Amino acid sequence: MKNLSLGEVFEFTINDDPARVIRFNANDVKLREKIFNFAKEASRKEKEFNKRIKEIDAIEGDDEYGFSLQAAPSMDLVLEIADYFMKGLDDVFGEGTSEIVFADGFDFDSFTVFLGFVLDKFNETGNKKVQARLAKKSLSKAMK
């Protein structure tokens, strides 16, 4: 049977685990749009999170058990941030992606590494397209 290859689909495992596979088409303009919109929204959200961090930092004292009064709102905010990024990842790459990437948890470093890897693949694909177009133009000029 013949095969028709459309676009450049990247497929990779997380931590060499065959049950944790991610696939995406680096030529998908809709995926690029989703990533762009998520990045814009995340920048806006970061300002909101930073404002709340300052508010939490201003809380002083301990509760009746000796725990800082900052502890509970800090943990709530950290969990909210994690949920925000996990949902964003699922919205961009499809439901269940965050579970594949993070297993049963979330950590900011893994999120950054994953997103950096994906963006590198988009850049790599874009650069190949530009080089192919330039080569095509050079070849057509040379043939004249």
Strand content: 5-15%
Based on CA atoms alone, the radius of gyration comes out at: 22 Å
Count the helices. How many? 4
**Count of individual domains:** 1
What's the arrangement of strands in the largest beta sheet?
A: 1-2
How many β-strand runs? 2
Q: Estimate percent helicity.
A: 55-70%
Provide a quick synopsis of the model.
The protein is mainly α. It has 4 helices and 2 strands, in the order ββαααα. α1 (29-57) runs antiparallel to α2 (71-93).
Structural commentary:
The model has no long low-confidence stretch (mean pLDDT 88). The protein contains four helices and two strands, in the order ββαααα. The protein is mainly alpha-helical. The protein has one domain (9-142). The protein has a two-stranded antiparallel sheet. It is elongated, with a radius of gyration of 22 Å. Helices cover 65% and strands 10% of the residues. The two termini are 39 Å apart.
What would the keywords be for this entry?
two-stranded antiparallel sheet; 144 residues; mainly alpha; 4 helices
Fold topology:
Elements: E1 9-14, E2 17-25, H1 29-57, H2 71-93, H3 97-102, H4 108-142
Antiparallel strand pairs: 1-2
